[in-house]
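ok posting inputs for the NAP job
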Amino acid sequence: MSDFRERYGEWALVAGASEGLGAAFAEQLAGRGMNVLLLARREELLAELAGRLTAEYGIDARWRVLDLSDPDPAARLEAACGDISPGLLVYNAALIPTGPFVEMTQDTLERIARVNVLGPLALTRALLDPMRSRGRGAVVLMSSMSGIQGWPRIAAYAATKAFNTTLGEALWYELGEEGIDVVVSCPAAVSTPAYFRNFGRRVPGMLTPETVARKTLDALGKGPRVVPGLFNRIGWQVMTRLLPRKPLIRAMGRTMKKVV
Ligand SMILES: NC(=O)c1ccc[n+]([C@@H]2O[C@H](COP(=O)([O-])OP(=O)(O)OC[C@H]3O[C@@H](n4cnc5c(N)ncnc54)[C@H](OP(=O)(O)O)[C@@H]3O)[C@@H](O)[C@H]2O)c1
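and the output
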């Protein structure tokens, strides 16, 4: 585990680190000996987490307030990094509006695209050149099981997750040739505060943020994609190989209508 610093360098950057999975990633990385640069909007949570990680793991933890839905994320990232050159990126931030597509405003849809699509593109691209010149580095993109197929009531969000899956899989190959490990993580339900705010109930196969972060980081260097949890991997196989798409989307639509 502590070879992470050797494999990827001193600093990891977690985009969307203030709570839930992002905070769990930061803690896992600190536990693996890396310094962490934490980005999100809620400063109080970031400061509290950075203080705790420094005290518990003896690493350097810094934070910057950054809204990834603002224009020109690459320039904002450069300012946020200062003299830090991260060797590992976790792009975890996501906007997850729920409900019928027709009720989404143009502004919401554009913000989903900025945080969930342009953000991972911009931050990954911006951090690549120093990683390439060092011949080592890592990129973790957070996708979701909802990227497998059309997912009513989170239609736009799920589509952005499909984008991240495809992007991550291709980069696994392209960047792997340059010594940079890429993995895209596709969890099902994770018990984060955001999950309960959005969906309000536990479901079978639900994992903790700590488990998902650990399994995702463990998967770096092993393959393009990780689906954490055996139950969820079986679900993935059933959904992608056994069940026909049309009834599956309808069934999901009926279920989601009861929830959001
Ligand atoms: N929870 C699940 O069941 C589940 C399942 C599959 C995949 N995932 C994926 O896992 C990731 C994390 O999920 P989560 O449940 O932990 O969600 P979350 O709590 O909403 O976490 C998202 C993080 O991103 C940050 N963020 C959101 N908008 C931002 C913005 N405009 N600028 C900067 N930071 C922003 C949030 O911090 P601030 O609000 O402080 O900015 C927060 O730290 C997401 O990519 C999600 O798609 C989650």
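notes: The longest helix spans residues 106-134. The radius of gyration is 18 Å.
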